[in-house]
Write a structure and sequence with these properties.
The protein has eleven helices and no strands. By secondary structure, the chain is mainly alpha-helical. It has two domains: about 80 residues, Helix-hairpin-Helix base-excision DNA repair enzymes (C-terminal) (Endonuclease Iii, domain 2, Orthogonal Bundle); about 100 residues, Endonuclease III, domain 1 (Orthogonal Bundle). The longest helix is centred in the first third of the chain and has 17 residues. It binds a DNA duplex through α2, α3, α6, α8 and α11.
DNA sequence: AGCCAGGCTACCG
DNA sequence: CGGTAGCATGGC
């Protein structure tokens, strides 16, 4: 099939050009190229989830500042978030913008985690206020190593508009399905692919 | 000195 | 269903 070949060759091209990206970055080790064992524990997984929420329509630079501040004041922790006032959280994450909404989102998500000790699913995540399709997929893919392809604005622009692999105006779920049906369902491939698309997308500007 | 970031919800027709 | 205003700060 044509799309299958395009997806594979485009991935190879991006890999040649940008190299392995080492997503998702953690405060403790930064990027970790070629190491797909991250996260290694629940605390690291939680940091990824927090980052995924904070980076909604926000540059990673600003998210990093917020994560560092959260860490400094001890808020990069489930129990701490549940016990903190909204104002305390807002102060730590102000640099990411939308800080009132995001403070609420962090609380809603963390409450959900606590009430949900079993296996985390994409559908259950979508029921949490503040978590939409892209954030759910980012969390499943990078925090829980599940092969869920992340579709973002770069995916639409680069793969859709520029490379002509699909109509960029299609729904999130249609694009996701189309891509997933034509790639090996391997979380490491999905992690690297999405990170490479972002690298390519950031470059054009 | 604007425009735009690794989106989502609420609400409209 | 699809389309869009509002959310908000910091970087370039």
């Amino acid at each position: 099939m044509a799309l299958k070949r395009k997806l594979t060759s485009f991935y190879e091209r991006l890999l040649q050009k940008h190299g392995k990206q080492g997503w998702w970055p953690l405060l403790s080790i930064g990027y970790h190229k070629g190491d797909y064992s991250i996260p290694r524990n629940a605390k690291e997984a939680y940091e990824i989830c927090v980052g995924a929420i904070l980076t909604q329509n926000t540059s990673w630079k600003n998210v990093e500042k917020a994560l560092i501040k959260m860490d400094e004041v001890g808020l990069l922790d489930k129990k701490a978030i549940l016990n903190a006032s909204n104002e305390e959280i807002e102060n730590a994450i102000r640099a990411t913008g939308y800080y009132r909404q995001k403070a609420r989102k962090l609380k809603e998500f963390t409450t959900f985690l606590q009430n949900n000790r079993g296996e985390l699913t994409r559908d259950s995540l979508l029921g949490v206020w503040g978590i939409g399709e892209e954030t759910a997929d980012s969390i499943m893919l990078y925090a829980y190593k599940k092969a869920e392809f992340v579709v973002d604005s770069y995916t639409r622009r680069i793969m859709g508009e520029r490379e002509g692999m699909f109509n960029s105006k299609m729904s999130y779920s249609s694009i996701k399905k189309l891509i997933e049906e034509n790639l090996d369902k391997d979380y490491r491939l999905f992690q690297e692919y999405h990170a490479l698309i972002v690298a390519e997308g950031k470059e054009q500007r």
